[in-house]
């Protein structure tokens, strides 16, 4: 590509980035993309014989057949290139939670789900991998409203789920272990990592009581309200994702 064309491309990208900063246009783009996405899902659900959408009380064999047919077709499509992983989230496996309504594109997220969103030794090791190997910069520890796993752990049913119950009751100690982990402390002190906690409203997926851990003082602090009103950082369209150590 000659220099003039590269320059023209750069100008076009800069113009587009500038356009994106106009809130009304940006919100309009979001509104339009939401509608197009809903339309695409409607078309797929209405016409797709290989997904699970149209199955009514299916047998395991029907589900497996549909999964195999769908995978056979989908795996022939080009795969999206691997992006950086900026976020690791520990959250409950409750089906009401929709992470895409919290983080948007989940390709940027290491998703660690378990009953009750507990932090124990194996989760701490997974988070070490996320920080050290995947380059994660923010850990979200997310409880949620109406957590069935936590209710079970405090009921007679706990006898049927002894391991989950034990992990739930040891959750606070697990958090303390995580925050004392040398990998986490070093990353926080070097300002490569922030650890946040919050509660997801299970009906809306809204994050409530968002707090950040400050390693120097050993305390949790609410995020300043001004952060929630800030314009989000906009990545340059010309920059690649460079934060991935692998
Ligand atoms: Zn739950």
Characterise the protein shown here.
The chain is α/β, with parallel strands linked by helices and 246 residues long. It has two domains: 3-74, no CATH class; 87-230, Carbonic anhydrase (Beta-carbonic Anhydrase, Chain A), CATH 3.40.1050. Helices cover 45% and strands 15% of the residues. The chain contains ten helices and six strands, in the order H-H-H-E-H-E-H-E-H-H-H-H-E-E-E-H. It has helices spanning 3-20, 23-47, 60-74, 100-103, 121-132, 148-153, 162-169, 171-180, 182-189, 225-229; strands spanning 87-92, 109-114, 138-144, 194-200, 207-214, 219-222. It has a six-stranded mixed beta sheet, with helices on one face. Strand 1, helix 4 (100-103) and strand 2 (109-114) form a beta-alpha-beta unit. It starts with a helix and ends in a 17-residue tail after the last helix. The model is unreliable at 236-246 (pLDDT under 50). The structure holds zinc ion (ZN).
């Amino acid at each position: 590509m000659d220099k003039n064309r590269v320059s023209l491309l750069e100008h076009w990208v800069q113009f587009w980035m500038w356009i994106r900063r106009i809130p009304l246009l940006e919100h309009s783009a979001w509104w339009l993309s939401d509608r197009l996405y809903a339309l695409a899902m409607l078309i797929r659900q209405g016409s797709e014989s290989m997904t699970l959408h149209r199955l009514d009380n299916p047998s395991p064999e029907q589900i497996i057949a549909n999964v195999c047919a769908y995978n056979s077709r989908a795996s022939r499509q080009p795969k999206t290139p691997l992006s950086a992983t900026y976020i690791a989230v520990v959250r409950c496996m409750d089906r009401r939670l929709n992470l895409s309504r919290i983080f948007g594109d989940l390709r940027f997220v290491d998703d660690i789900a378990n009953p009750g969103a507990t932090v124990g030794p194996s989760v701490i090791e997974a988070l070490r991998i996320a920080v050290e190997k995947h380059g994660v910069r923010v850990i979200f520890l997310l409880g949620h409203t109406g957590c069935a796993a936590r209710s079970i752990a405090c009921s007679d049913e706990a006898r049927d789920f002894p391991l989950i119950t034990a992990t739930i009751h040891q959750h606070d100690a697990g958090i303390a272990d995580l925050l004392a982990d040398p990998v986490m402390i070093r990353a926080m002190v070097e300002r490569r990592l922030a650890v946040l906690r919050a509660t997801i409203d299970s009906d809306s997926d809204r994050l409530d009581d968002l707090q950040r851990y400050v390693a120097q003082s050993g305390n949790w602090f609410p995020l300043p309200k001004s952060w929630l009103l800030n314009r989000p950082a906009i990545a340059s369209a010309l920059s690649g994702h460079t934060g991935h150590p692998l």
